[in-house]
Design a protein that fits this description.
four-stranded antiparallel sheet, 2 helices
Length: 349
């Protein structure tokens, strides 16, 4: 593994570290064969006595996290004596999880895509160093091709599943692509052109088919859009500097919006990722608040999760959010160099 992917060791003085030191004395180890599974003492949100809505399943920070558990002593020895940490995340950004349980994480500083096999415990590094400057977003189409946004070059890279470059999608109108999502409803790629203050939609041949938005603060206008999500015929857009989430139909027609600037529950500071769960709740990741807020379809706040920190359910400049059909929620916790994984629990509201 290239040196740029070696995560520098660091010591975090936190409750988690204290618990780990206790485990050192007891010889604790992660149970072999267990990955991303809630335990009896897994953190939940909201805290008791309220009914839990979210449970922490774990995190992935390097390829070794896929392997059967090592004792804390083995991990500490590897860190103290400078053992390499293969497949370590540097600055995780965009992510997605496919139907065959492969998690793809775009690493902007590492200029690669990390592929974690969540069911078969395999790991692959797809290098982007020769073809991308600072990759950010990732999507996958019905043919399992990967689409990666590279804002500095103003291009979308089209890759096969092994990471080989197939094509580049560019357009004179596309200035700085960031967020990207594929719609299976109409086979179009929706892309946030952040510097252009709009959303562009391309077919898989790279032809521009739709565009909507435009700089401004009125309904349907955008100001530095970022994260995207497509669900039930709607395109949800993080309208970051308007401090709101807007919904459009697949043709770009304005449907509605919610959110405003502020520091109260339900407000936004820098919304930069959005996802919709199986119950059609809208989850919004805020990079400045370093939290995730859940809303119903009318924009009413349901709950919030997270604040700045390094423990479970805490974030440090989070970048991306993905919710699969099984209601597992994956969060790129960028400056903590990890992906946190949660389970959204059944329940009303």
């Amino acid at each position: 593994m290239a040196n740029s992917l070696i995560r520098p060791p660091r010591i975090l003085l936190s409750g988690t570290a204290a618990l780990a030191l206790c485990c050192l004395a007891a010889g604790c180890a992660t149970a072999p064969g267990v990955i991303l599974t809630a335990g009896e003492n897994s953190p939940v949100w909201p805290a008791p006595p309220l009914e839990p809505r979210i449970v922490a399943l774990g995190q992935l920070a390097m390829s070794e996290d896929l392997l059967p558990g090592k004792s804390f002593w083995e991990k500490l020895t590897a860190t103290v004596f400078g053992a390499k940490q293969p497949g370590a995340l540097v600055t995780p950004h965009g992510l997605l999880v496919t139907g065959d349980q492969e998690m793809f994480v775009v690493d902007s500083a590492g200029r690669c895509i990390h592929r974690f096999g969540l069911s078969d415990r395999t790991y692959t590094c797809l290098p982007l160093r020769e073809i991308a400057q600072a990759p950010v977003g990732v999507a996958s189409d019905a043919q399992n091709r990967l689409y990666v946004t590279d804002p500095p070059s103003g291009a979308i890279l089209v890759l096969d599943r092994e990471g080989a470059l197939i094509a580049r999608i560019t357009a004179d109108e596309m200035l700085r692509p960031t967020g990207i999502v594929f719609s299976h409803d109409n086979s179009l790629l929706y892309v946030s052109d952040t510097a252009g203050h709009r959303v562009l939609a391309f077919d898989t041949a790279g032809q521009l088919r739709r565009k909507f938005g435009g700089r401004g603060g009125r309904p349907g206008e955008l100001y530095y859009p970022t994260g995207l999500c497509v669900r039930d015929g709607k395109v949800y857009v993080c309208d970051s500097f308007n401090f709101r989430v807007q919904a459009f139909d697949l043709n770009g027609g304005f449907i509605g919006s919610f959110g405003e600037e502020g520091d109260r529950p339900g407000n936004f500071s820098l919304p930069n990722a959005v996802a919709v769960d199986a119950a059609r709740r809208v989850w919004v990741l805020d990079a400045r608040f370093e939290n995730i807020q859940a809303f119903d379809s009318s924009g009413r706040l349901l709950m919030a999760l997270g604040h700045e920190g390094t423990g479970p359910g805490q974030f440090w400049l989070p970048r991306a959010l993905y919710i699969g059909p099984d209601n597992r929620m994956f969060v790129s916790d960028s400056y903590n160099r990890r992906v946190q994984v949660f389970q959204i629990l059944p329940g009303d509201g």
